[in-house]
Amino acid sequence: MTINVQDSKSLPLQEKIVHNNKTARAIELIILPFLVSMLVYRIISFKDQNHNFPWFLTFLCESWFTFIWILSMNIKWNQSSIITYPERLLERANEFEFPAVDIFVTTADPILEPCIITMNTVLSLLAIEYPTNKLALYLSDDACSPLTYYSLVETTRFAKLWVPFCKKYNIQVRAPFRYFTSNSTPLKDDCLEFQHQWKKMKV
């Protein structure tokens, strides 16, 4: 089935899927009359009780429980999930229409927050699918650590190789320390260029 460009632009960027929970609704509709009848019984039988305070206290607790149960039932009554299609955004808008985005990465202690984690966060954010001229990333180091500074210097050098590599080969896991795991090795079916670039990135 082929979809022309005009039809692809009319496709939604997100879709709401309503889940079929008829069984759960039926159970809740059965429980609700029992809770209401229990409260009605407490009200009707209140005058016939010798111990009014415990009976009233029980009524308050059961009323609160019923109220909370009705609130939770309303939340679960119409269960749904949202599926987004970010790949359709480029079909509906040109890159020059994208707004400029500033991303702030904060760190406070190179010991408690190892630089390898912070720099991998920086690299993964730089490699996102967004126009590079509209993306700015700032690293805020409250500790003013020289270790973080020199790590950032080396990260900017590696980013000149890592970011084009991710975009060229559509790498989904864009944090290097996650991508280059022991199980992450180029397949034999991959082209020689990709294998060479993979080894170059890892070294």
Describe the structure.
The chain is mostly helical and 203 residues long. The protein has helices spanning 5-10, 22-44, 52-77, 89-92, 115-126, 146-168, 176-179, 192-202; strands spanning 14-18, 80-84, 101-107, 135-141. A two-stranded antiparallel ribbon has the order 1-2. Residues 1-6 have low confidence and may be disordered.
Explain the layout of strands and helices.
Elements: H1 5-10, E1 14-18, H2 22-44, H3 52-77, E2 80-84, H4 89-92, E3 101-107, H5 115-126, E4 135-141, H6 146-168, H7 176-179, H8 192-202
Parallel strand pairs: 3-4
Antiparallel strand pairs: 1-2
> Helix count?
8
* Radius of gyration of CA atoms, rounded to a whole number: 29 Å
Number of strands: 4
| Structural class by secondary-structure content | mainly alpha
The ordered H/E elements are HEHHEHEHEHHH
Percentage of residues in helical conformation = 40-55%
List unreliable stretches of 5+ residues.
Answer: 1-6
Short structural description:
The protein is mainly alpha-helical.
Write a concise keyword list for the protein shown above:
two-stranded parallel sheet; 203 residues; disordered N terminus; two-stranded antiparallel sheet
